[in-house]
Design goal:
There is one protein chain. This protein is of the alpha/beta class and 150 residues long. The protein has one domain: Rossmann fold, CATH 3.40.50. Helix content is 37%, strand content 21%. The protein has five helices and five strands; from the N terminus they run E-H-E-H-E-H-E-H-E-H. The chain has a five-stranded parallel β-sheet with strand order 3-2-1-4-5, sandwiched between helices. Helix 1 links the parallel strand 1 and strand 2. 31% of the residues are buried.
Length: 150
């Protein structure tokens, strides 16, 4: 069985994230979406709410699991017996950061990172932009996966 993790803070989980997981399901038998608990980031949504939103998005999809973790991402991958880390790239600016982390993870554990480019329709959508819009009372439903209600 090929298992991957898809790590992030997902505050909130956007349609771009959803697309990466949906496309990743053609490559992996199972994807564990891991909500990393980052004490340095101020979150808009509680971990419980983020877990709920992602579970709503993948309701009925038994190959997607969702859980939170409070460790290095690579340690989370080892804990859930993942062989891969799935990541999405929106911009060229994301590349160097992702490459550095992927190289480090592979050197430490042998776990490979698989990168999928974000679909162009979603490349402008980020959790940061979504949070900013929410804070000003804007409707972001078009930026969210199906079945997700804030």
């Amino acid at each position: 069985m090929k298992r991957a993790i898809f790590p992030g803070t997902f505050d909130p989980f956007t349609i771009g994230h959803y697309s990466i997981v949906q496309r990743g399901l053609s490559l992996f038998d199972e994807i564990v979406i891991g909500i990393g608990l980052n004490q340095t980031k101020k979150s808009l949504f509680s971990v419980e709410k983020r877990l709920e939103m992602i579970r709503q998005a993948f309701e009925g999809e038994h190959r997607v699991k969702v859980q939170s973790y409070n460790s290095l991402t690579i340690d989370f991958a080892l804990a859930v017996q993942a062989e891969y880390v799935l990541r999405g790239l929106r911009t060229v600016g994301d590349f160097e950061y992702e490459r550095t982390i992927a190289d480090t993870n592979r050197k430490l554990t042998g776990i490979e990172t698989v990168i999928l480019f974000t679909e162009s329709d979603y490349s402008f959508i980020s959790s940061t932009v979504a949070r900013d819009l929410i804070s000003f009372g804007k409707d972001i439903s078009a930026f969210l996966p199906p079945n997700v209600v804030l």
